[in-house]
Specification:
By secondary structure, this protein is α+β, with helices and mostly antiparallel strands. 18% of the residues lie in helices and 35% in strands. Strands 1, 2, 3, 4, 5, 6, 7 and 8 form an 8-stranded mixed sheet that branches. It starts with a strand and ends in an 11-residue tail after the last strand. The chain binds zinc ion. The site of zinc ion has 8 residues, from loops.
């Protein structure tokens, strides 16, 4: 785990090997540690996603979890090395957006998906406590927003990555289609 600054935001970059090895977290309190993502990242299979921790403003011993998602294919294994050796540059993160994990359901067909979404609340908070709203808007505009893999309806969230279906989960029949004409 290495501290980096990306787009003005101070982050702790979590190398997948640290997750696989069960290394201790560098802060005392972490919100939203998602078992699905820990298992998934520990395998090292995804070259377009990395976990990062954003220490809380005024509470540096606690952190929120985000996932850097690179929209134009994977280079994360290369970036792991550059981050560890101190040779990364801002260019490495130009196509990366800060996301959060969410189990997202499709209100049309009812299937539930393991997804990364651009969060509704701006995550681009710098060390002075200032939000970079312009950058947040730019990241949204640059992102390809995905629809439901089964029925292609809008998922009504800014979904940028779908890992697969949440097995055995489905929206109750009485709620399916209620948002669609
Ligand atoms: Zn659907």
């Amino acid at each position: 785990m290495t501290e980096i600054t990306v787009d003005g935001v101070r982050l702790i970059y979590v190398n997948p090997e640290c997750i696989a090895a069960g290394m201790p977290w560098p802060v005392r309190e972490i919100t939203d540690l998602e078992p699905f993502m820990l298992d998934r990242l520990a395998t090292g299979a995804d070259d377009d996603v990395r976990m990062v921790l954003r220490p809380r403003f005024r509470a540096p011993d606690s952190a929120d979890v985000y996932y850097l998602y690179w929209s134009e294919g994977g280079r994360a294994r290369d970036i792991d090395v550059r981050v560890t050796q101190g040779g990364y540059t801002g260019t490495d993160f130009t196509n990366a957006v800060l996301t959060i994990y969410q189990a997202t359901f499709c209100t049309k067909c009812g299937y539930v998906w393991h997804t990364l979404i651009i969060p509704p609340d701006n995550p681009y908070l710098d060390d002075r406590g200032v939000f970079n709203h312009e950058l947040f808007r730019t990241k949204i505009v640059q992102s390809k927003i995905l629809t439901c893999p089964t029925c292609h309806a809008s998922l009504r969230q800014l979904v940028v990555k779908i890992f697969g279906q949440v097995e055995g989960e489905r929206l109750p029949d009485c709620m399916i289609g209620m948002w669609h004409g």
